[in-house]
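User: I'll paste a sequence; please echo it back and then give the predicted structure.

Assistant: Echoing your sequence first, then the prediction.
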Amino acid sequence: MRKLTYYVGATLDGFIAAPDGDFEVLMQYVSGDFLSFMVGEFPETLPTPGRTALGAADAPNRRFDTVLMGRGTYEPGLPVGLANPYAHLRQLVFSRSLTQSPDPAVEVTAADPLTRVRALKQEDGLGIWLCGGADLAGQLLPEIDELIVKQYPVVTGSGIPMFRAGFAPHTFRLEASRTFDNGVAVLTYAKSD
């Protein structure tokens, strides 16, 4: 069975973006040995233009062959012409308001995320990457098998949380951690409940 992994960057206080959705405060840390780690270990999580710019355009997908996004994660790329942000992956965008895909390679669906992910997990292939955002992560929390949190050494006080959901504890166990020269820690958790 395929695994659903929420691979996400977050502040020390658990926010994935500023209240307006901007995540530049996090992107300043994507450099040096941390960037090399991302290119080497998670090349498929880099948007297609980034892969090309970093010389990883032909890097094989190591962990994931499918990416899931909410509309709020997908839509910011559209004004800059990025309608197919992960051309090297199967792309699904969950949205109740976006009714048509601006690119034939991107599937837009209003289907129930839990039902759809349960079906995806039964298919053959590599893992499924939950890219974001908070609403979709909150809905899919019962199906998340692994959390890989790129924890950035900054506290913002507010913003978009990693999960937007009602109170319903789910436990995970820390399986691995790695720190980088710029203070970023990558924490890998497996579902334990």
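Residues 4-179 form a domain with the Dihydrofolate Reductase, subunit A fold (CATH 3.40.430.10). The chain has one domain: 4-179.
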